[in-house]
């Protein structure tokens, strides 16, 4: 049986359906990524799974316990890190850890042992006396994660923990998650970054409270059903507007280049004349393999998404 089992979950705010018929499972020592745009329902899903919100229908089981009947048994097993986790900015790194250790009833000796382990893998040891408010964004997130790990939870639920954090700190944070997973933790993490989705064991794409697809990151690309081409051109707003007026052609900015999507039954040469009129060198157009971000964009733009 999966360590986390959610079946046919529904959650509404009045007439707004925030989570609709959502099912999810996560096995022991698995890292599951939940990806979706802002307003997709990720935070509502996580808060409901953690027992912070009531829900309309469905079932939530964590470690074999029903969240409605056995929440007192679930609580010690669970670590939840919301988007805006409350650190105390005027307390030092160590004082924040000690405070959260007290909330979970850890004795002094147990706390000292846990603290050493957390410092070791988070790299926070040299900053133990620094006030939390003076930490960088990446360090704050590491401290927030450490506070959630102080009681050794089996299950970690992290809501966009690296949003707004620099790329190096994001990578370091995910290195920590990999170590936690190797030590037996089961982790569900939401993220808007497709490079992070690629690091997970499995991923779920969510939109408008519904699950769109689920699977191993490398296998998800089978759902991409267009041909894709990269164009070497400056993606100015004017050019993008003109490209989007070409029937049958979808265009999107990708860094300093442009990606073009066409129906798999069409040929790109069909559009060469129109593209040339826009000043695009057709010799710069080359077929490429889709990435997770291409799939993500395509799924978000489907009429039934």
Q: What's the number of structural domains?
A: 2
CATH class of the largest domain: Alpha Beta
Number of helices: 11
Mean pLDDT: 93
Structural class: alpha/beta
Query: Roughly how many Å apart are the termini?
Result: 30 Å
Q: Provide the spatial order of strands within the biggest beta sheet.
A: 6-7-8-3-9-10
Query: What does the largest sheet look like?
Result: 6 strands, mixed
Overall form: globular
Low confidence ranges: none
Q: What series of H and E elements makes up the topology?
A: EEEHEEHEHHHEHEHEEHEHEEHEH
The count of DSSP E runs of length 2 or more, i.e. the number of strands, is 14
> What is the C-alpha radius of gyration, as a whole number of Å?
23 Å
- CATH homology group of the largest domain: P-loop containing nucleotide triphosphate hydrolases
- The CATH topology of the largest domain: Rossmann fold
Strand content: 25-35%
Specify the helix fraction band.
25-40%
CATH architect. name of the largest domain: 3-Layer(aba) Sandwich
């Amino acid at each position: 049986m999966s360590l986390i089992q959610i079946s046919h979950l529904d959650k509404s705010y009045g007439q707004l359906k925030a989570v609709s018929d959502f099912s999810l499972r996560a096995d022991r020592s698995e890292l599951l990524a939940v990806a979706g745009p802002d307003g997709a329902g990720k935070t509502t899903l996580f808060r409901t799974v953690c027992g912070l919100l009531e829900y309309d229908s469905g079932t939530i089981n964590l470690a074999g316990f029903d969240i409605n009947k056995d929440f007192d048994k679930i609580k010690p097993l669970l670590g939840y890190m919301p988007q805006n986790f409350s650190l105390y900015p005027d307390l030092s790194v160590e004082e924040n850890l000690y405070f959260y250790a007290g909330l979970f009833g850890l004795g002094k000796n147990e706390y000292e042992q846990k603290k050493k382990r957390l410092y070791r893998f988070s790299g926070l040891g040299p900053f133990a006396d620094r006030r939390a408010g003076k930490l960088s964004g990446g360090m704050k997130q590491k401290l927030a994660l450490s506070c959630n790990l102080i009681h050794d939870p089996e299950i970690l639920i992290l809501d966009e923990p690296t949003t707004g954090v620099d790329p190096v700190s994001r990578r370091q944070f995910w290195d920590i998650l990999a170590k936690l997973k190797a030590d037996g933790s089961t982790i569900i993490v939401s993220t808007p970054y497709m490079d992070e989705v690629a690091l997970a064991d499995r991923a779920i794409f969510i939109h408008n409270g519904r699950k769109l697809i689920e699977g191993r990151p490398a296998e998800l690309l089978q759902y991409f059903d267009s041909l894709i081409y990269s164009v070497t051109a400056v993606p100015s707003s004017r050019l993008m507007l003109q490209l989007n007026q070409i029937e049958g052609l979808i265009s999107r900015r990708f860094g300093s280049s442009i990606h073009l999507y066409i129906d798999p039954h069409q040929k790109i040469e069909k559009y060469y004349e129109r593209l040339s009129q826009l000043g695009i060198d057709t010799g710069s157009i080359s077929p490429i393999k889709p990435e997770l971000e291409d799939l993500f964009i395509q799924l978000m733009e489907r009429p039934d998404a």
